[in-house]
Amino acid sequence: MVAMIDKLEAGQIVSRARFVKGTTWRSLADAIDKPVVWTTAALLGQHALTSDDAWRIGEILELGDDVVEAMQVQPYRGSGTQQIPTDPTIYRFYEALDVYGPALKELIHEEFGDGIMSAINFNVEIERREDPKGDRVVVTLDGKFLDYNW
Amino acid sequence: MVAMIDKLEAGQIVSRARFVKGTTWRSLADAIDKPVVWTTAALLGQHALTSDDAWRIGEILELGDDVVEAMQVQPYRGSGTQQIPTDPTIYRFYEALDVYGPALKELIHEEFGDGIMSAINFNVEIERREDPKGDRVVVTLDGKFLDYNW
Amino acid sequence: MVAMIDKLEAGQIVSRARFVKGTTWRSLADAIDKPVVWTTAALLGQHALTSDDAWRIGEILELGDDVVEAMQVQPYRGSGTQQIPTDPTIYRFYEALDVYGPALKELIHEEFGDGIMSAINFNVEIERREDPKGDRVVVTLDGKFLDYNW
Amino acid sequence: MVAMIDKLEAGQIVSRARFVKGTTWRSLADAIDKPVVWTTAALLGQHALTSDDAWRIGEILELGDDVVEAMQVQPYRGSGTQQIPTDPTIYRFYEALDVYGPALKELIHEEFGDGIMSAINFNVEIERREDPKGDRVVVTLDGKFLDYNW
Amino acid sequence: MVAMIDKLEAGQIVSRARFVKGTTWRSLADAIDKPVVWTTAALLGQHALTSDDAWRIGEILELGDDVVEAMQVQPYRGSGTQQIPTDPTIYRFYEALDVYGPALKELIHEEFGDGIMSAINFNVEIERREDPKGDRVVVTLDGKFLDYNW
Amino acid sequence: MVAMIDKLEAGQIVSRARFVKGTTWRSLADAIDKPVVWTTAALLGQHALTSDDAWRIGEILELGDDVVEAMQVQPYRGSGTQQIPTDPTIYRFYEALDVYGPALKELIHEEFGDGIMSAINFNVEIERREDPKGDRVVVTLDGKFLDYNW
Amino acid sequence: MVAMIDKLEAGQIVSRARFVKGTTWRSLADAIDKPVVWTTAALLGQHALTSDDAWRIGEILELGDDVVEAMQVQPYRGSGTQQIPTDPTIYRFYEALDVYGPALKELIHEEFGDGIMSAINFNVEIERREDPKGDRVVVTLDGKFLDYNW
Amino acid sequence: MVAMIDKLEAGQIVSRARFVKGTTWRSLADAIDKPVVWTTAALLGQHALTSDDAWRIGEILELGDDVVEAMQVQPYRGSGTQQIPTDPTIYRFYEALDVYGPALKELIHEEFGDGIMSAINFNVEIERREDPKGDRVVVTLDGKFLDYNW
Amino acid sequence: MVAMIDKLEAGQIVSRARFVKGTTWRSLADAIDKPVVWTTAALLGQHALTSDDAWRIGEILELGDDVVEAMQVQPYRGSGTQQIPTDPTIYRFYEALDVYGPALKELIHEEFGDGIMSAINFNVEIERREDPKGDRVVVTLDGKFLDYNW
Amino acid sequence: MVAMIDKLEAGQIVSRARFVKGTTWRSLADAIDKPVVWTTAALLGQHALTSDDAWRIGEILELGDDVVEAMQVQPYRGSGTQQIPTDPTIYRFYEALDVYGPALKELIHEEFGDGIMSAINFNVEIERREDPKGDRVVVTLDGKFLDYNW
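^ Those are the sequences you sent over. The predicted structure of the assembly is below.
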């Protein structure tokens, strides 16, 4: 029987191997020709890679077969429990939602009617925008509108 | 002494008055010449309006003086407790963060070094992008990068 | 200004008025020509009714204008917090999900690939199936498959 | 003494072995002639298999004796704590219940009187329904009605 | 429109009226010819009374029409959230379950096979057993066995 | 130094050994001449066995010395946190308490005055009662009344 | 029908009336000839007073009849949920238990065998002990030992 | 580098070694000439022992060097999270506080003014008081009064 | 009897009256000659004012007698439950503690030995420090060291 | 592939090695010429060290390469969940915030306008201030003011 490792453990091993080798997430994304946020999320355990892509990453980072296999498995997504994390870099996104979430809801309904922005037919981009007063992080969430369609 | 009403109650009254009159959030934002996400958040109780802006909104929606006053008060921001809401339109944003939050963290650090995207020196925009396969909700989070600067 | 009442309070008033008059949910659904689960959920505060439908229900149940207005307002859906209710009739559904949820996930992925059953482009039906060993409640959840489509 | 492994660990091993061998849940269900949702749930640790069925599965997936034994043990069902999971494929079912649960309760009482849909004398089916606007996941919950019978 | 009162409020009013008049729960149960635990639970809001029984109790305790009506309404059972109460008289039952629950589970399975004791087709009795070392509270839980019957 | 194992681990080993050998809890209880609920609870880690009884059980189930030792240790009782478990066989008892707990409290006070049913000077019995409409699980909780005695 | 007030509200009214009149808890305890901790707890809603004692307190503090009545009602004890309070004067007791609770458990078992200190057949005293390095609060918890007596 | 073991693990090893050897906590306290509650708490991981005392205990119980070292380390005190434990012997203390905590607060303020009983400049004693109606556990909490001293 | 209002409600009334009159917290502190953080905390309900100070504040802000009385009452301090607030201005302090708390603990023990910084014999100051790169908030926590003194 | 260890484990190993060698945090800070609170927090896992600094610490404390590597990795900051710790030395800081947090918020807004004290562009110092009545712990939090700047 194959030795087992779950996707979150695999994600930690990838993350550490990447750090030790000095490889960037962006270069890993380029190597498999996928968007960078998607690739990073996938390697951290939130998406399944195709077999080819998993072996390609395994080769670059010299990962074991168990890690390569784990990358291809269908994920249980998210953190597992409905709790808000403490890391400040991540928390700021939650805080922004806590403050602006109801406003976004009102404006989605005003513009589109009753429904939601899909988090499945959905993508995220992140970029740096230079600014003389200090560069800015710009994150774009882009999801299909789904109307309540009984 | 003036009768008291808190900012969340004021937000509900504004929201209902707007519905009854058939006024849009966007037209309220135009009336006080502020961005629409900011204005909606402010009217729901997450920012303080200037006295002039509060009276202008009060006039348009025919609100009582207590509501107008509450709009000018400094807010206690957020929902009050660290809990994730159930409304599907709002929840999808939390789900997206739960899935992509750690990837965004990795990429902020890769691009900017150790630090965060500010949620204070920060703004949000929402727009509709037409798409033949179904229109899309596009939300842009734009915050200044702050580095850990001891 | 109009007196305010929220959708959950309106739902309780509808529910009680219906009880007092001996009207069924099914007859209310028929009166506005909508599916019965949708109508019941809407009247309990989980969907917005059109103005015509709201006035039609108001007439049948002799409801106040504030209740009729509240029925038309866009809902904040769900119970508000991510907690599991205690009522046995409702709890059994949660228990079934707790036991069979991971199996449903596996089988959705096996049949459709990576994605979800939409809870927005979605409907529910409930019917009674006669059975000599005791009649059965049959609930059908029917949602569009959405694939992870970056 | 026999080495010990619990049913959830056994479920993870089955799940991985199945992935590695490219076997479907459906073919495993066929091999033991049981419904597919029941079989998947059982192999994930929510039902006990008979000794024959456990050995049959063990043979197909080349599992160790400890896994085969664990499959036959009486389960502690559910996730262990009353918490709502984050995986989007599973979460959508919880969201649907949070929105439609009270309506289902009302309609069960309207049709059957005071009581519940059993989650024990109960089964679940899942099927794909083709639809030109996108195929649909159809899940049927079918449980005996039990009345409050003091 | 009738003034509204919910079943828990009605339960508190009944409880206080009973205290003021010096009436026992047992005599109320006798008045409507129902078991005493059932009656007490019903009057506290956990079961619906028939119209006749509700009016009979209303007469004895001189309750308002709103209370009498609330007694007849279908309940949302339980405390609403999955939390353990602090009152020592109630807590001891939870403590006993926390200590002996897994043992009861094992013995139900040993004696009956896989299944549960129904909490719906179920009744409870309480009695005093005299004992020279101090009288004892004897509570009997009696529920139909339901087997997992797919 | 002795190898260590805690009482809950010991309980799982006992439970598995019993399953593998096909021994019943009842026969284990008979072997040490103790009530069956007490014995089952004790072997699952909720009571301490005497040295003689522990060795007797160890002999029957061919357990290691570390397990036999753990059985004699004073327990930390309960599940450790004030949370309600999900296993349906156990949950039904909690649900019954949630629904009937306040009624039991009222009736204890009506019959005995202010005080509690002890969960320490306390025992539990479980038996099967045959019934043509389906056999019943009968659980009897029997505890000394303790009055608030300052 | 009598106006209703619950025991916690009654406790707040007593507390405030006492403050306004400048009466001490100790003098109230003396007036009804009961221990001071018991009396204070009772007046805050944790014990029932006899009718005579309730009227005596009502007379001293010039309380309404509804408050006097509420004092005589059987309490739901404790704070209602298993949460630790924040007030520093109360929190220190919880902290002491968190640190020394397991040690007290070990020593109770060493001295008395398996069992508990009753919190029902139980009393508490508080006194001031003068000390040149700063006076001390001395709290004595005194409860009957109850052994696990099946 | 030394093998590591934390203070709670060390506490479990001490506790088991003590059980196996039949040594009492009291005799361990005598061996290092410290109060018995302090010593038991310290050995369970809530205080640091001096090097001499740790080696003395290590000798008596024949503990490994890693355990002896862990005993000398500064503790993280308490259980780690603000949760109430389920063990009945410990829970009764929490219940007593839940019921009498507010009364103790009132009486501390009445006697000493605004402030707290320190849980740092603080000690606990436990003793057995013989009583013909059943012996009693007497626990004395003795802490310096600290006034709010800005 | 005086109408009742609790300290938190009184705090909200003070806060609003101050806003309406355009009075600063600092001027209120000066009026009663107390430190500004202490005064603000007291007026928000966390300390008791002397009768003179309460009447002085009442005069300045034209408050009702019930508010003035509530200011003099002994507080239940803190927010009531052990939960972390969402307001960003307050949350940043909690985040800083979550990140630096264990380091502060280590350094207190390194410098002072085993013990704590008192939060009772304790004060807080806040000041603005000008800085060309952006002014800074400087908060100083100053508490007496208390050693574990058994 | 390198053996993996996470930053919190690394922090525990550092902490223990430091204890065993009798090295102070202050001397470690001096060795890498960084502020002492920053260094202690970093070594406990809350900041990343440069490669040089990590190797310098590794040399002093004779740490393994895996520990040295872990020190350089970007942290997930904080304790991971939004829970308040129980250790008294740390808890006192949380208590102080619970009592004085809203006052600090009011005064930040009064002095600086709407915004926050940054916890990123932020530092902490701790010092001992001698005092004849008992030495004091003085902690200074110093963060840049950030205004809400849309």
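The radius of gyration of chain G is 18 Å. Residues 88-147 of chain G form a domain with the Cyanate Lyase; Chain: A, domain 2 fold (CATH 3.30.1160.10).

Shout if you want it in another format.
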